[in-house]
Design a protein that fits this description.
Length: 146
C-alpha cells in the first residue's frame, strides 16, 4: 500500500498514464461502453463515478494545449435525450476545479467519438452506469526546466 495516492487509480492505470505520449488520447468509459470493441488496451476500474476518476487522473496527467480542446464529450443533441444530462455539468465542474479555469470542451457525435476511441492509446472502463459518463482526455507534454 502507498499513501497519498487515489484509491481510484489502479497500478495499471498509472502505467497507462505514464507511458502515454504527447497527444495520446485516453478514454474514461462508463460501464455500458463497448470498450473491447473500441480499443486495444482496456483497463478495468471498479470506480463507481467517472468524475471522481477523472479528477484523480488530472492530478497527474498533463493536459494538451496544442489542440482545440484536450477534453471531448458526446454531443447529447445527437442522442435520444431531450435535456442535457447531468454528467455534462458534473464533468464541467470537475474540469474547472482540476484545470483552474473553464476549459474548452469538444462535443462530437457518437459515431465520431467511437472512431476516436478506436485510435485512443488506452481505454479505462469503470462501473459507472450513468448515461454519458464517458470522456476522452488528450495528454499534454511535461516541460522540464534546465
Amino acid at each position: 500500500m502507498l499513501e497519498n495516492i487515489s484509491r481510484y487509480i489502479t497500478p495499471d492505470i498509472y502505467k497507462v498514464l505514464y507511458f502515454a505520449g504527447h497527444q495520446d488520447e485516453i478514454v474514461i468509459a462508463d460501464a455500458n461502453y463497448p470498450s473491447y470493441a473500441m480499443c486495444n488496451i482496456v483497463i478495468r476500474s471498479e470506480c463507481p463515478d467517472n468524475s471522481l476518476l477523472l479528477g484523480a487522473i488530472l492530478q497527474y496527467l498533463p493536459i494538451d494545449n496544442d489542440r482545440e480542446s484536450p477534453f471531448t464529450l458526446f454531443n447529447v443533441e445527437d442522442a435520444h435525450y431531450k435535456e442535457s444530462p447531468l454528467m455534462i455539468e458534473i464533468f464541467q465542474k470537475v474540469l474547472k476545479e482540476s484545470v483552474g479555469r473553464n476549459p474548452d470542451i469538444n462535443y462530437i457525435n457518437k459515431k465520431e467519438f467511437y472512431e476516436r476511441s478506436k485510435k485512443a492509446y488506452a481505454l479505462i472502463q469503470t462501473s459507472d452506469y450513468r448515461p454519458f459518463a464517458t470522456v476522452l482526455v488528450t495528454k499534454g507534454m511535461i516541460l522540464n526546466e534546465y
